[in-house]
Each structure stands twice: as C-alpha cells, then as structure tokens.
C-alpha cells in the first residue's frame, strides 16, 4: 500500500489548520508543503513561516518540497522551522551535493527532486546519500495538472537502480496523482504519493485518501 502525502497547495489557505488536521485524522502519512519562489517556478506559495506555524498543530511528518533557486541558502531555516524532510531540485543549484549535506547536518531527511525533463543519470551519484527521491510527474509550479504517463518508465528505472544497489530510499511521485495514476506509480516502484487537487478538491477528502490506499492494496 502506498503512503499518501496530501499537498496543502490545494487546501483552503484561510482554513489551513482545519485542512491539515482533517487529513491527519484521515490517516495521511505525511504532509507535503510546496515552497515556490517565483523564479525556479512561475508561482509563489509558502515559506518557512508557514512551516513554523503548522508545526505545533500536527504530528504529521512535514515534507517540504523546495522549488526555489539555490535552496542551500534556506535549508537550515526550514529545518529549524520544523521540516522533517526537505526536498531540493537537482536543477535548482550548482551545489546539489552540498545542499543535501546541509539538510542532513540540520537534522532533517534529505530528498533530491527531478523534473520531468531531467534524466536519472543526473542524480545517480546522489542516491547513496538521500532518504527519498521525488520524481515529478508534472512540470512543477501548479497543482491540478495532468499526470505525465511517460514518467512511469522513469519510476521503474529508478526502482531498478535501487534494487540493484541495495539502496534504502523512498520513491515519491508528485503531480496529477489520482486513483488511476497512483496504481501505475505504485506498480513501477513508488512508495509515497503526493496528491493535492485529488484530495482537497473533493467533498470527501478522507475518502480520497482511502481510495489512493485501496487502489494500491
Ligand atoms: O509540487 C507540486 C506542484 O509543483 C504539487 O505538489 C503538485 O502539483 C500537487 O498537486 P496535484 O496533486 O493537484 O497535481
Ligand atoms: Co510538490
């Protein structure tokens, strides 16, 4: 069964506490927080003050997906704000290894993220270091986009590398996840699914979390 990480990008920002606690009660496995700087992606969203505000409200793992240029500038502040896991895009910095080291030094779990157009060989050397790899299944920047089917072979190729080398990281997918696409990802080796609009744009978010789990059971 896949682990489910609701993305608050699709939550009601005027009722974030309610929307976070609702998914926690519905057995979400972690909470996905999309951080955007208007440069790496053409959108703005949350910052470390949002993470700090949410930290006392939930015991869910806070999974912070940084879509910002040169994320190494800020990873320590995100960890201090309460992030448990911090994801940095391989495309966002000249110093990805250093960024991942800083995350670990700050006491958080380290994740490397790859855009749809980025081949896996860009992150192969990082795989022994990371706790999680995030394969983007849409181009980053916005919720509610269509899942890119071509990413399924990329997930399978990453899982093959993981098995061959005995690596111990989770494989997360993000973008366009629903009860159909989640099964394709799970069958290819994904262990964690982010879902924003599928969960929060529903009248029954708890049922949607259950549906993602049932689809991969
Ligand atoms: O990183 C993201 C966008 O860049 C979001 O996590 C992702 O898009 C979730 O939204 P949805 O499930 O609606 O596609
Ligand atoms: Co995300």
Task: Please write out the topology.
Layout lengths: L2 E4 L9 H10 L4 E7 L11 H7 L6 E7 L7 H7 L3 E5 L6 H10 L3 E6 L17 E5 L14 H15 L4 E5 L6 H8 L3 E4 L1 H4 L4 H11 L2
Parallel strand pairs: 1-8, 2-3, 3-4, 4-5, 5-6, 6-7, 7-8
This protein binds ribulose-5-phosphate and cobalt (II) ion.
Largest sheet: 8 strands, parallel
SSE sequence, one letter per element: EHEHEHEHEEHEHEHH
Residue runs with pLDDT of under 50 for 5 or more positions: none
CATH architecture: Alpha-Beta Barrel
Overall tally of domains:
1
Distinct bound molecules:
ribulose-5-phosphate, cobalt (II) ion
The CATH homologous superfamily is named Aldolase class I
User: What distance lies between the first and last C-alpha atoms, to the nearest angstrom?
Assistant: 5 Å
The CATH topology comes to TIM Barrel
Structural class: alpha/beta
Instruction: Report the C-alpha radius of gyration, rounded.
Output: 16 Å
What fraction of the residues are assigned to beta strands by DSSP?
Answer: 15-25%
């Amino acid at each position: 069964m896949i682990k489910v990480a609701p993305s608050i990008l699709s939550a009601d920002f005027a009722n974030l506490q309610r929307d976070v606690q609702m998914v926690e009660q519905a057995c979400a496995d972690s909470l996905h927080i999309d951080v955007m700087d208007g440069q790496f992606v053409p959108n703005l969203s949350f910052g470390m003050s949002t993470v700090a505000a949410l930290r006392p409200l939930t015991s869910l793992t806070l999974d912070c997906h940084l879509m910002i240029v040169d994320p190494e500038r800020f990873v320590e502040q995100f960890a201090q704000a309460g992030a448990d896991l911090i994801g940095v895009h391989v495309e966002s910095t000249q110093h990805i290894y250093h960024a991942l080291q800083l995350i670990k030094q700050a006491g958080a779990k380290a994740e490397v993220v790859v855009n749809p157009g980025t081949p896996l060989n860009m992150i192969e050397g990082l795989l022994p270091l990371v706790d999680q790899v995030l394969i983007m299944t849409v181009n980053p920047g916005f919720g509610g986009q269509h899942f890119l089917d071509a990413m399924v072979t990329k997930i399978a190729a990453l899982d093959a590398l993981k098995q061959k080398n005995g690596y111990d990281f989770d494989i997360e997918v993000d973008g366009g996840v629903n009860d159909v696409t989640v099964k394709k990802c799970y069958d290819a080796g994904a262990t964690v699914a982010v879902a924003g609009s599928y969960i929060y744009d529903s009248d029954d978010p708890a049922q949607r979390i259950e549906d993602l789990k049932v689809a991969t059971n």
